[in-house]
């Protein structure tokens, strides 16, 4: 499975972004998908995840202002983020687990995209 993350960029505080993660090589319809982020000097952290059945889960830091969704027909997962602030600045990665249910531990996702940089200016 190859994952291609896109949609990052420079955005002003209070603005919005939608990140996309397109897959090739395998269908994502039965996969667990996650979005992680890593800021300089910090550990990679789970931002949001979605099960094959559409159940979602969010980090407290983004809950209420972010939405993870999937379009199985396009083999793509999205992360919409609103009310962005400087603490959202990071490289965002999408990840997939096809054959087993992952935990919040990044190590339980075998497949990763290359990351897309989000920079929020104040």
What is the H-and-E element order?
EEEEEEEEEEE
SSE-based structural type = mainly beta
* Continuous helix count: 0
Low-pLDDT stretches: none
Write a structural description.
The chain has no helices and eleven strands. The protein has strands at 2-6, 9-12, 17-24, 32-38, 45-50, 56-58, 66-71, 76-81, 90-97, 111-112, 116-121. The strands form two sheets. Strands 2, 4, 5, 6, 9, 10 and 11 form a seven-stranded mixed β-sheet that branches. The model has no long low-confidence stretch (mean pLDDT 96).
Fold blueprint:
Blueprint: E1 2-6, E2 9-12, E3 17-24, E4 32-38, E5 45-50, E6 56-58, E7 66-71, E8 76-81, E9 90-97, E10 111-112, E11 116-121
Parallel strand pairs: 2-11
Antiparallel strand pairs: 1-3, 3-8, 4-5, 4-9, 5-6, 7-8, 9-10, 9-11
Summary keywords:
four-stranded antiparallel β-sheet; mainly beta; 122 residues
Short description:
This protein is mainly β.
